[in-house]
Write a structure and sequence with these properties.
disordered C terminus, about 65% helix, mainly alpha
Length: about 240
């Protein structure tokens, strides 16, 4: 049973009758047919919610590239310091670490405060970091960022597939085939206007869930659904031989 938040009053009795009349459907029980349509809509919302606001890998790669570039620049700037400048920075790191160690011992070092000491299990002990330690950590973090970016799989160009719509059309196909012997086919004009009864039903019924959804994407998933069913049918036939 889906959570109630995924259910809405999507189809009125008049809407359901109009969808059926336009597509030539004659369900034995229009009320039960409408309820199944609402169930299909709720399942779509449930599936769509799982993928909502998930960033694309290209967006993640772009986001991770920002700290990666800045780290690379920082490491290059540190490596390019003159001996005099490096000595001053080394001294500054030593003084900061010493101050942080004293604050840690006296219990005055806030856990979220910028610090150059790492507390140990013993509350009276800590490890102080020097400039060489910091450079190693920066290098390790840069490598970790590179590995994170490299592990992101490449995505196909164009729009990502809508798995909620794919599931919805599969359920509608089952409802269609249990209601009529008319083939569940997809034909459309060059302008993506549905021609066949099943295509017309799918486009108009889904747009009552997502009014701004383009016909082309609905028809694309409808075509894919029909192709998958044909392939499955051939596999079953071969297994039965």
């Amino acid at each position: 049973m889906l959570p109630s938040r995924f259910y809405e009053n999507t189809y009125t009795e008049a809407d359901t009758k109009r969808l059926c009349d336009t597509s030539g459907l004659k369900p034995a029980d229009l009320g039960a047919f409408r309820k199944t349509l609402e169930d299909c809509a709720a399942i779509y919302r449930w599936e769509a919610a799982k993928h909502k606001d998930i960033p694309r890998h290209t967006d993640l790669r772009r986001e991770l590239a920002v700290p990666q570039t800045r780290l690379r620049s920082l490491r290059a700037a540190l490596a390019g310091l003159s001996n005099e400048a490096r000595s001053e920075l080394d001294l500054g790191v030593f003084r900061k670490a010493d101050q942080d160690a004293m604050r840690h011992i006296t219990g005055n070092l806030d856990a979220d405060a910028p610090a150059l000491v790492l507390p140990l299990l013993n509350p009276d002990q800590s490890v102080s970091l020097d400039l060489a330690d910091l450079e190693k950590l920066l290098g390790g973090l840069e490598e970790a960022l590179s590995q994170a970016v490299d592990r992101l799989p490449n995505q196909r160009r164009g729009q990502s597939r809508d798995y909620g719509l794919r599931l919805w059309i599969t359920n509608i196909r089952d409802l269609w085939q249990s209601t009529t012997s008319t083939p569940f086919t997809r034909d459309a004009t060059a302008d993506n206007e549905p021609i066949t009864p099943a295509a017309d039903f799918c486009v108009n019924a889904f747009k009552m869930i997502e009014p701004k959804y383009p016909n082309s994407r609905i028809l694309r998933e409808l075509k894919d659904c029909i192709s998958r069913q044909k392939i499955t049918g051939r596999i079953v036939a071969q297994n039965q031989q």
